[in-house]
Amino acid sequence: MAELPQVHEGGSAASRPDMNAFLSLGFRPLYIAGCGWALISLFIWIFAPQWIGQPLGGLAWHAHEMLWGFIATIAVAFLLTASATWTGFNPLKGAGLAGIVVLWLIARIGYLVGGEIATHIACASEIAFFVISAACLMRVMVKGKSRRNYGVPLLVLGLGAANALYLRAALDGDYVLLMRRFDLGMICMAVIALLIARRVIPFFSMRMVPGLALPMQVRSGQIQLAIGVIAIALGLAGLALPMAAALAAVGLVSLWQVARWKPLAVLHKPMLWILYLGYAAMGLGLIFAAWHTSGLATGVLARAAVHVHIIGMGGFAVLIIGMVTRTALGHLGRPLALDNSMLVSYYLMIAAVVLRLGALWPSSDSLWLLRAAALSWIACMALYLWRFVPMLIRPRPASPG
């Protein structure tokens, strides 16, 4: 797999912000938007929940904004960027890219403000965000004859469809159906994340560790993808036990892949082990999800919040903080090295995961642990934005010589 595309981003004065550079590839505005909203929305959820309007209020708002407002946004940002490498064509830039960012922003404001009109405008804007992104991805896949990636736009479209189903259940006030559709959206996102990560982790590792040779595991990846899609279909059909078996299989394949990637060889490279850790946590979370779906879990482990936070925070968020640093540095022509603030952001995210999972066990410390987890998360995202926004809004530095 080639490195992220070295697209000309306009302007030679890299010291000044440049709108052409900022809107040259999807990762630039959408990394800022997604990580910025991860910080803001969690602050609101934990410390100012009274600001959240109805009908998408309370837990329904928090779950939606974490999965579709943050995690899915970063995934779309990465795919809009990486697809330029896979196909040789940039799927979205300039005014078109600005347009989907505006749609994304309208959705965030509409859900927060609440009310019937604002919520329906937000729903329409968010559906348009996913549909346009999927259409642009498919256009360049076809144009570039990248047949092996034809499924990627369909998965993005599936993520948008799961979002629409979730919103419909929220507007209908059906909490049980809402949680089922959230799980489907999370599984759809997991399939996309596993697909992306199993391509980039071996590639990044072999580039950063001299002499390291890792198998790409194409066949196991194809099997994993197929079983993941089957799990989604079984969920839609309401077949809990077969769905649980499929989820367990996907999780086990994930853990097997991590073991095959020689994790001990990357322990001295934080930019790599953070990706390994996130991938392994996602596999473990899918196994817990299977346990929950089967109805066999008991006690605290029977709570959906356990597998949701293992996958959502331990898997998605840990992978994201690793990906948004590694891919931004690589594409922006910066040295692939972490400074202290980047490394601290990794540890803050890991601390947030541990504290949040600890808060799930009923005790007198649960509220304190929850708030500490939130503060660790907020500090992680703030550090990322402080370090990377100045780079993301400027052109690539000119190559020496």
List the helices and strands and how they pair.
Layout: H1 19-22, H2 27-47, H3 58-87, H4 94-113, H5 116-143, H6 151-172, H7 175-208, H8 218-236, H9 240-260, H10 270-294, H11 304-331, H12 340-359, H13 366-392
Structure write-up:
This protein has 401 residues and is mainly alpha-helical. The protein folds into 2 domains: 19-173, no CATH class; 206-395, no CATH class. The protein has 13 helices and no strands. The protein has helices at 19-22, 27-47, 58-87, 94-113, 116-143, 151-172, 175-208, 218-236, 240-260, 270-294, 304-331, 340-359, 366-392. The longest helix is centred in the middle third of the chain and has 34 residues, at 175-208.
Spans of at least 5 consecutive residues whose pLDDT stays below 50 are: 1-13
Rg from C-alpha positions? 20 Å
Note the beta-strand portion: under 5%
What summary fits the major beta sheet? none
**Count of individual domains:** 2
Count of helical stretches? 13
- Average predicted confidence as pLDDT: 90
Overall number of strands: 0
Shape: globular
Secondary-structure element order, N to C: HHHHHHHHHHHHH
Spatial gap, N to C terminus:
27 Å
Helix content: over 70%
Alpha-beta classification: mainly alpha
